[in-house]
Amino acid sequence: MTVAVRKQQLNFNKLQKRLRRNVGRAIQNFNMIEEGDRVMVCLSGGKDSFVMLDILRNLQARAPVRFELIAVNLDQKQPGFPEQVLPDYLRSIGVPFHIIEQDTYSVVKRVVPEGKTTCGLCSRLRRGILYSFAAEHGMTRIALGHHRDDIVETLFLNLFHGGKLKAMPPKLLSDDGRHVVIRPLAYCKERDIAAYAEARQFPIIPCNLCGSQENLQRRAIKAMLQQWDRQTPGRVENIFAALQNVAPSHLADSGLFDFAGLGARNGGQALDWLLGGRADDEDERDEEDMPALPAGAIRMPWPALPSQR
Fold first, then answer.
1. Is the distance from CB of 187 to CB of 148 less than 8 angstroms?
2. Closest Cα partner for 55 from 188, 148, 169?
3. CATH classification code of 3-213
4. Tens digit of pLDDT for each residue in 109-146?
5. Banded model confidence at residue 290, pLDDT cuts 50, 70, 90
6. Which of 44, 78, 248, 260 can pair with 268 through a Cys bridge, CB separation 3.0 to 4.6 Å?
7. Domains of the chain: which residue ranges?
8. Residue closest to 143 by CA, chosen among 36, 227, 271, 23
9. CA separation (Å) from 239 to 95, 153, 193, 291?
């Protein structure tokens, strides 16, 4: 073995250990997988889901608890989708799998106007189908391949475009309370995932088969974060760390913290006049009744002060 090959193998081992450590830490910190779980690993054919399945299998072989891994792919009948790639790969590594065939592609193309992004509707349809399949087959966990960078990008998407301080949780309960969704790659960097997928030479399926334009807002956020990472290394790590170190008392959401009750002597109940009571109503009526001023005139709220000489 040459020096170059030895170095390449050493770097790969370090990368694999780092990914395995981060996935294991996320599973432990958020209690993602327990004894007897049936984990539905959602496999899209992209690098993230391939790496997730590979690392989970690696951990499964060493874990002190027993759990099942079942790979599930949704064939949405996109033109040109190589439908044999995933079954052939999964058979070759001995992982049990299911291929769900649902023509959501035609539905999305029929509903979404030409030129508009199809990603939103497509993801909602996909989620509904996967949830239904999980319920029918007794899956106790649904594993998705979102990583640390996805989580931080989602934080800024919601902040800039939704007016919400909200990201993508490593573990969540579905709205109907029937499904536990986990994201084992929550602590993993996208560049580590990409490097590992390249080294393992997974049969990656391109994600542009539907012809939909990539979400431009997410792409802009990704570019912003990459620039920050180049200019100030460690900034993205600090942003992700902040998601785990939240101080509700230093924000402004009264639903998360009882600001009204702080130092209150009236039981924390706001007085009527502070919430637009009678006095405010009278002020508004007075404002409406005021005659219109001539053009160019300036309304003075206070008497003008005498000029100082």
1. yes
2. 188
3. 3.40.50.620
4. 777 777 666 667 777 888 889 999 999 999 999 999 99
5. low
6. 260
7. 3-213
8. 23
9. 36, 10, 19, 53
